Amino acid sequence: xxxxxxxxxxxxxxxxxxxxxxxxxxxxxxxxxxxxxxxxxxxxxxxxxxxxxxxxxxxxxxxxxxxxxxxxxxxxxxxxxxxxxxxxxxxxxxxxxxxxxxxxxxxxxxxxxxxxxxxxxxxxxxxxxxxxxxxxxxxxxxxxxxxxxxxxxxxxxxxxxxxxxxxxxxxxxxxxxxxxxxxxxxxxxxxxxxxxxxxxxxxxxxxxxxxxxxxxxxxxxxxxxxxxxx
Length: 230
Known about the structure:
Blueprint: E1 3-6, E2 13-15, H1 26-30, H2 40-49, H3 62-80, H4 86-98, E3 103-105, H5 109-118, E4 122-127, H6 132-140, E5 148-151, H7 152-155, H8 162-172, E6 179-183, H9 186-194, E7 198-202, E8 217-218, H10 221-228
Parallel strand pairs: 1-4, 1-6, 4-5, 6-7, 7-8
Antiparallel strand pairs: 2-3
Helix pairs in contact: 2-3, 3-4
């Protein structure tokens, strides 16, 4: 096995607020209005506004992403009766795209990426994500550990679309049979298998997947390494 390809969410990072769509500073910016988060009304509002967060939509950069975040937050504000000002909308969008504190990085990420690189393993990242994730990975000091990093807004598709797997294989210059892919979602793992890769589900305790698949499962990178070595 020559290439290890990792998903990002649930594999490298987790949302500190328990919600991938929440800016970290939302409580400070909205004040008492933030108490409505995670109510039934909030979940319905998110469902009706989520089209602005389409990770299959091609995006050039973080500034374009920020525009879509503004529209999502604006739509949420209307549906939640938050009566937000334009400044509050801008601050929330900026916080989402600029504030690394909304992500927690699993403790084993840095040491294991370094160990795999030291063993001569080629590393790839393949994630359904918007451009800001690469900024945060760079800030955390791990983006350069990857020989290639592909996100869905660069491809115009999300996993398990075959275009995603083809994109990371091309970026790595890799053959599918030489790759091991780790993701938390069964459908994404099945897409990798269909593309000719081996696959392992990451089932970290902090972001335990709703569904466990029938194939190999690892609870952390130490367990993942056992599959890397086989």
